[in-house]
Automatic annotation (TrEMBL):
Entry keyword annotation includes Oxidoreductase: yes
Name of the protein in its database record: Uncharacterized protein
Keywords recorded for this protein, A-Z: Oxidoreductase
Annotated TM spans: none
Organismal lineage: Eukaryota, Fungi, Dikarya, Ascomycota, Pezizomycotina
Length: 285
């Protein structure tokens, strides 16, 4: 699928990321410091490139593997005029996140792309430590990142954006072995909703990124030949839109990167009222 709003058409050429056409002016990230956690590969890397192409002043790259982050940094440098910094950090380690926050200083957009899907197994046959790692990274990681970076937020037009999963809407019988991933993603979605409610000066929302070929995608047991696949640029550029004032009505909500933005905006009233696009049991018997 193509990104659902006017965004840069980008391509890889000789290992260089080239922007061919500009964003609409109201969607640019000019002057912003953008932090991308999980920027070493996949959606995180592409998101860093998208914000650089959109005119960000500085892109801070966080992840566990310095070499991967440095590779992303070379692409970011080719994608736009943004300065770039690399910060080795583990989302399950508070001190590493606090150190990164101190090094980055004031920021405007925090995008949390780090996530983990343990190798599928039934609840009864799973190894406890492996099963719980989904919660360590997806839930505790979100908590620790929020606590580390909120003290240094520049609250003017600031946003915290995260990746969740919409497959929790499917019957569990169709998702064998994914209890850790699905359960932790549901818990993570609720943490974001609390962050939105408790921080009225910061826009907080999440997206389901679509079906993108990443390490987590393959670890889940999925195969691209059996699913409607998306390009990694889809969620990356959608996140640029999510950081713009146009998306303000999505505070505390989870939306889908596959959704056409104009159709989404047409449902503003429905989304803003009630519990639509939030996690949890809906309605009473």
């Amino acid at each position: 699928m193509q990104p659902p709003f006017p965004c840069p058409t980008a391509t890889w050429h000789n290992d260089t990321y080239e922007s061919i056409s500009p964003l609409r002016p109201e969607l640019n990230a000019a002057g912003k410091t953008v932090i991308v956690v999980g920027a070493g590969s996949g959606i995180g890397r592409e998101t860093a490139l998208a914000f650089a192409t959109a005119g960000a002043a500085h892109v801070a790259l966080l992840g566990r593997t310095e070499s991967a982050l440095k590779e992303t940094a070379t692409y970011v440098s080719s994608a736009g005029k943004a300065s770039c910094s690399v910060h080795t950090a583990d989302v399950t380690k508070a001190k590493s996140l606090q150190d990164a926050a101190a090094a980055v200083g004031k920021w405007h957009v925090l995008v949390l792309c780090a996530g983990y899907c343990p190798t599928p197994s039934s609840v009864s046959s799973s190894e406890i430590n492996v099963w719980w790692e989904g919660f360590e990274i997806n839930v505790k990681g979100t908590l620790l990142a929020a606590k580390a970076f909120l003290p240094t937020v520049d609250a003017s037009n600031a946003a915290i954006l995260g990746l969740t999963s919409d497959v929790s809407l499917m019957p569990t019988a169709h998702l064998p072995g994914l209890s850790s991933y699905i359960s932790s993603k549901l818990a993570q979605a609720k943490v974001y909703e609390f962050l939105a409610a408790e921080n009225p000066d910061v826009f907080v929302a999440t997206i389901a990124p679509g079906m993108v070929e990443t390490a987590n995608f393959y670890r889940s047991g999925a195969t691209p030949d059996k699913l409607p696949m998306d390009k990694v640029q889809l969620p990356a550029h959608f996140l640029v839109w999510m950081a713009s004032p146009e998306a303000a009505f999505l505070r505390g909500r989870c939306t889908w990167a596959n959704w056409d933005v104009e159709e989404l905006k047409a449902q503003r009233a429905k989304i803003s009222d009630g519990l639509f696009m939030t996690a949890g049991f809906k309605g009473l018997p």
